[in-house]
Amino acid sequence: MNIFNLPDLGEGLPDAEVVRWLVKEGDTVSVDQPMVEMETAKAVVEVPSPFDGKVTKLHGQPGDVIQVGAPLVEFDGDGSSAAAEAPAKQPAAAEEKPADKPAAKQSSNGEVFKLPDLGEGLPDAEVVRWLVKQGDEVTVDQPMVEMETAKAVVEVPSPVAGTIGTLHGQEGDVIQVGAPLVTFAGSGAEAASDHQERAEEPAAEEKSSDAGTVVGAVEVGDQVVAESADSVARALARKLKVDLTKVTGTGKDGKITQADVKAAAKDGSAKLGQSSQSAPTANTETSNPLAYKASPAVRALAGRLGVDLGQCNASGRKGSITRDDVEQAAKGGSSKPAAAQSQASSASSTTSSGGSRLPSITVTRDPQPVRGARRAMAQGMAHSHATVVPTTLVEDVNISAWPKGTDSLARYIRALVVASRAEPALNAWFDGDNMEKLVHPDVNVGIAVDTPDGLYVPVVHNADQMSMAESRAQVQVLRDKIANKGIKPDDLANATITLSNFGSIAGRYGTPVVSPPQVAILGTGRFRNELQLTDKGIMNQKMLPLSLTFDHRACTGGEAARFLAAIMEDLAKAN
């Protein structure tokens, strides 16, 4: 039997909610086949199968909260792995002496664990904080290090039980995916022996249970299930606002189960009071990093400041603890309730004409590491500077014919679609290494969005098949996803041309940066009124500045000029 535990879904969050099972017990699945949709605080993610095999048990129903590292799916085995052979070997193993039994997932001498892809397809990640040190004994799935990608801080667990030999990298170092992260020392023989002694303790009837079919890992398997049940119940209680101190457990040894929490939430017998809804329950262990919904970075800050997460008010989304909550607790006070904090933030924040909050940068005398979306932006700009040969054309277009209330962003998207049809050479990708160019039949418009966390460029896919109202609505959907931390990799991928509406804030002309493999980007500046000579004499006209940057390796000046002329012709129309 193979037990697949819920992995970290790439966002550094401690749990996720079952949205919908895509398989059922008895189904045969293949490697990478989606099994379940799980909702984190930011997105709905499909979790694929790591095995070929038959599903024997699904842990959790839609609406249940599953802890990262807790059992999710059980399989009857993998025909291509040693797991499938385990049942056949069990009788022989049972006749051997306990000292000869195999231990589960023990490290071998000098085994090197390399940094895996952390779920976002990014090439590297930065070491935020080591959670172990050289010489430490670790168990399977024990968090070893916090790594920061362009979007999140993620805890990387140990794939084996063993002794830490070498840690590759210091805090602040950037590690490439596939590069060595941790080298394990020793064969783990002592741990294996200890493991086997504990495996002999359960009674005979317990050995015949499902957990006993995991050869050499009976006690470990039972512990994982039991601890996960507690964590899941606590997470569900926070979600349903149930006070666990008022719930009677019906599980083994009086433990509180998910069913107990749901029943209490339904009859209202254990509802949290208004004053305690945002605080963790009283019987939650502060030493358990999964007892509170807080990112690894927030937990690290709490550790540095000596703050107990149990003393922090959770003002973040879905009851999570934020950096502000920790810093407020460190000052000796309690952070504002979520509603009051949100109201104060809304009252004091300044918005651009696009309706989004202006970026807030912490002012300090000390150097600040560039992380997250800003780091991804910096890397993208550096790549563009190293590879693209940019040339910018600027022009003004008279938009005085626009009716009052015209949606400028929708007009820009339509103009890019029209120009891409008139001169397809700029709606393309260019591979400079192989000197190949791919001209796209469809138009996927990337929209540069300014946020407090940095620059995002979500994509309006198939904009050439949308009306102006539809494209504008899609832009709003994408902006909402960014604001709610729900943007998915697919929402940011495969743009064929980009729009930067910097004029909604300030600026007349610019030299917007092309993002490879794209070959062009249009910048729209700030409207201005200007006296113009017309057929009716000198009149006050509304002018729109345009800046078109293109990669001169992939496009000629004539192609770029025709593209810009087509944009201007469409923008000059009344409708």
From TrEMBL:
GO terms for molecular function: acetyltransferase activity; lipoic acid binding. Residues 77-118, 188-211, 268-290, 312-371 are annotated as: Disordered. GO terms for cellular component: cytoplasm. Its cofactor is (R)-lipoate. Residues 272-289 have a biased composition (Polar residues). It holds the Pfam family 2-oxoacid_dh. Keywords: Acyltransferase, Lipoyl, Pyruvate, Transferase. Residues 94-103, 192-209 have a biased composition (Basic and acidic residues). It comes from the Bacteria. Residues 1-76, 110-185 form the Lipoyl-binding domain. It is an enzyme of class 2 (transferase). The keyword rRNA-binding does not apply. Residues 82-93, 329-356 have a biased composition (Low complexity). InterPro entries: 2-oxoA_DH_lipoyl-BS (IPR003016), 2-oxoacid_DH_actylTfrase (IPR001078), 2-oxoacid_DH_E2_comp (IPR050743), Biotin_lipoyl (IPR000089), CAT-like_dom_sf (IPR023213), E3-bd_dom_sf (IPR036625), PSBD (IPR004167), Single_hybrid_motif (IPR011053). The keyword Acyltransferase applies. Belongs to the 2-oxoacid dehydrogenase family. Forms a 24-polypeptide structural core with octahedral symmetry. This is Dihydrolipoamide acetyltransferase component of pyruvate dehydrogenase complex. It comes from Pleionea mediterranea.
